[in-house]
Amino acid sequence: MYVKKLDENDELLLKQRREKIKEFQEKGVCFSCQNFITGDIFPDDGLIIYEDELVRCQFEKFPRATGQTIMVSKEHYEDISEMPLDLGVHILKISDVIIKLHKEILGAEKVYMCTICDGKRNHLHFQLFPRLKGEKIGYQNFVREEGILMDYQETADLYRKALKNIKL
Ligand SMILES: [Zn+2]
């Protein structure tokens, strides 16, 4: 699994996704709730590595870091200020497993975590950013240029297998 620089066609796909999100936000519709119904904003494409009744965890198709992972709540909470603590604990337990897998499978030196959920209408989600050996440390890892995730199917299988028997 690796991140390739975007070519023209990839850039177009990313632009289309951003426009779709913006369109929903302007209508006051939550794009994440919408995606749980239609699946056409963040298609599975084999990127979903874990799912239960509360959350879905998915590799970002246009990541800023190799293995960037989105963990999104299925219920609508606008941002972290609305998050029930029980859900936070649930997400943290899953994060703990994924973070260790990022270290084992990707050889990540560190794994960063953030939650933003900005804009007019958004949906509680957390992001994990693996920092691989040799990559510069620090905040710039949150704002690196997006690429496109390549050759991820086998790696995603390893994550899915490991997360299948997670004890929560
Ligand atoms: Zn929502």
UniProtKB/TrEMBL annotation:
Residues 35-138 form the HIT domain. Keywords: Hydrolase. InterPro entries: HIT-like, HIT-like_sf. GO terms for molecular function: hydrolase activity. This is Diadenosine tetraphosphate (Ap4A) hydrolase. It comes from Clostridium amylolyticum.
